[in-house]
Design brief:
Layout: H1 3-20, E1 28-34, H2 53-61, E2 63-69, H3 75-84, H4 88-91, H5 102-105, H6 109-115, E3 119-124, E4 139-141, H7 154-168, E5 175-180, H8 220-224, H9 236-244, H10 248-279, E6 285-291, E7 296-297, E8 303-304, H11 310-313, E9 317-320, E10 330-337, H12 341-348, H13 362-367, E11 378-382, E12 393-397, E13 402-406, E14 411-415, H14 434-450
Parallel strand pairs: 1-5, 1-6, 2-10, 3-4, 3-5
Antiparallel strand pairs: 2-9, 6-9, 7-8, 11-12, 12-13, 13-14
Amino acid sequence: MSKTRFVITGFLFLVVTLSGFGQEKQPNIIFIISDSHRSEALGVAGNSFVQTPHLNQLAQEGVRFENAYVTTAICTGSRASFFTGQYMSRHGIEDFATDFSEEALLETYPLVLKKGGYKISLIGNWGIGKNPPVSHFDHWDSKIPWRTTSGLHQTDNIVQKAVNYLDKYQSEAPFFLSLGFSAAHEIDPTKDKPATYDVQERYLPLYENIEIPFPETVAPEYWDNFPDFFRTDKNIARSRWQGFFSSAELFQKNAKNYYRMVTGLDDAVGTIMQKLKELGIDENTIVIYTSDHGFSLGEHGLMGKWYPFEASIRVPLIIYDPRNLESNGKATEKIALNIDLGPTILKLADLEIPKCMQGIDLLEMISSNKKRLDRKEFFYEHEFLGSPQLLKSQAVIRKDIKYIYYPEHDYEVVHDLKNDPNETVNVVNSPGYARKVKNLRTSLRNLKQSVK
């Protein structure tokens, strides 16, 4: 080899080496979305009886968001907000039939991850439209029933499939794995069968010897306080309450089954975390846990979600990044929304956030003092069906006060959450709140326009 050729070859080797120096491998990311997991149903959140040791540990080693909300409390719209980083007013998924357009799909965070070098996979619930984007994913397995013919429960089935996926993963590229559980959702009623919970048999002895505390607002007068247009058995949240929580016996039975399903989810998280350790990839794998909405266990004489009450819109949210020693172990009171998960995931992967996304990077929010990231309020919307089955609603949500507007009936509700956290009194016409109500009305108009 000539001296000149040797020098050039050595120079090129040095350039290639230095260009990769200091670059860390992009992290693997597992995003776990449960269904109907209300925020209080965690030991680390202060619940005195629910058994969630694995989620407790995940929260203690990661970051827990104490004020995490969804911007619409319905499965399909909320999941669309996760994937797009957008309010429902922008992504337009208001029902169970509408799919993403191809243009919108390409700007969802999984497809941006794929463009950025990730292998993207989904196991479990996609939950959006009728034509899922199977061909865009490297691995797709979404048609997982509540029970297989052999009796395997969906939660266990998804975990088994996730473990198999991790065992067989061979690519040098980082992976993104979305796990969509149907628990702790009830099995919806049919013409011939009432709604019910499907609990794994091994959890049935759990909580047998305790009495689940009744919500303060379970008393009949709280249902009776609703206006006539709301207080009807055609209201789906009320009709489902009839078969689930309308007696003390039904409440204990179904509340216990609900928390049993939550413990099943917790064990699923524990199994996945253990597999990451066994494979030696736990130190470079981010795990995020949340739910598509909360759930009313009889509060206000209701069952389910849909309405902008605290039980319905608050969700658990934990982000565990083993590389982030500075933030891990923290809990924050700052407001986090479902629209923030897409931007946050892309920043964790060191990828650019599409301009169409409306959420923020949550880890930047808690690590910086930027006022623009410390939101004081947000817009809530629900458009599916309408009165009398599910009333359309809009709201301005703050940590200390809430304004709800039912546009079909031009009806306003204001709850002073600081002094009335159970949302029992409507103060919209109280003279002492006149200035606040005026301010909230203005905020609703402005927020409604800004989220489009």
